[in-house]
Each structure stands twice: as structure tokens, then as C-alpha cells.
Amino acid sequence: MSDPLIAASRAAANGLFAQSTRMRVLSENIANAETTGKTAGSDPYQRKTISFQSITDDMDGIDMVQVDNVDRDNAPFRTEYMPGHPAADGKGFVKLPNVDMLVELADMREASRSYTANTQVIKQVREIVSMTLDLLRPNS
């Protein structure tokens, strides 16, 4: 088993990676919230989802998070009547992405807070290690 502080840093680093991946997926959803298909009746951008899983590091015996899957949301597309739009079907309806901006922004806030919390863990570990090294130095 390695040092508990190193193990804490590794767990937090995995959390940083997971949350940064989550933010990338959310930013793609937000950026494409109005992206329609190019031709009549074609499907628009389909919202992406991300899931995580817990893994156990056998060497340290710690549980960490990792990205399990980035997938597509199968929720139905919104439709809007826009007869002049290039993606409008025969009845004048255009399929719009299944992205709900309020959901994406709330999820982004949660991801940001989780990222910040993991950053704080790493910062605290560095501070504790630094304090420990200071204590071990001979007085001058």
C-alpha cells in the first residue's frame, strides 16, 4: 500500500479527469442545442450523456471514479413549425435537438463544483506534504 496522501491525490486526479470529460460532453450539448439536420426530415444533433463507474485500485485499495460510457440520449426530438427551413419535413415541421438548456446548465454547475472539490483535495494534500517536509528539515 502506498502513502495515503498519494492515494488521495490519485483519487482526486481521477475525479478531475472524469469531471473535465463531463464538462466537455455538456459543452458539446450546449453548443449544439439548436443544430438541426441539413436536409428535409433529417435528424438534428442528439444530446450526449455520460455515465461513471467506481473502480477499485488494487494496489492502494482505494475506490476511484472513471468514465464508464458516453452515449446518446434517446429522448424524442422537439419539433417546431418552420416551413421555410431547409430541414423542414413535408408538413413544415423541423426536428430540433433533445437538449434542455436548463438541465445542461444545472449539470454544468454540478460538474464544476465537483471539479473544484477535487482540486481542493489535491491542493490540501500538497500543503500537508509541504508542512511535513518543513517539520523534517533541520533548524538553521
Automatic annotation (TrEMBL):
GO-annotated biological processes: bacterial-type flagellum-dependent swarming motility
Superkingdom as given in the UniProt entry: Bacteria
Keyword GTP-binding: no
Residue ranges of every copy of the Flagellar basal-body/hook protein C-terminal domain listed in the record: 92-134
Major subcellular location class: other
UniProt keyword list: Bacterial flagellum, Cell projection, Cilium, Flagellum
Cellular component, GO annotation: bacterial-type flagellum basal body, rod
Domain Flagellar basal body rod protein N-terminal: 10-37
One Pfam family cited in the UniProt record for this chain: Flg_bb_rod
Places the protein is found: Bacterial flagellum basal body
Complexes and interactors: The basal body constitutes a major portion of the flagellar organelle and consists of four rings (L,P,S, and M) mounted on a central rod. The rod consists of about 26 subunits of FlgG in the distal portion, and FlgB, FlgC and FlgF are thought to build up the proximal portion of the rod with about 6 subunits each.
Family: Belongs to the flagella basal body rod proteins family.
Protein name from the UniProt record: Flagellar basal-body rod protein FlgC
Native organism: Hyphomicrobium facile
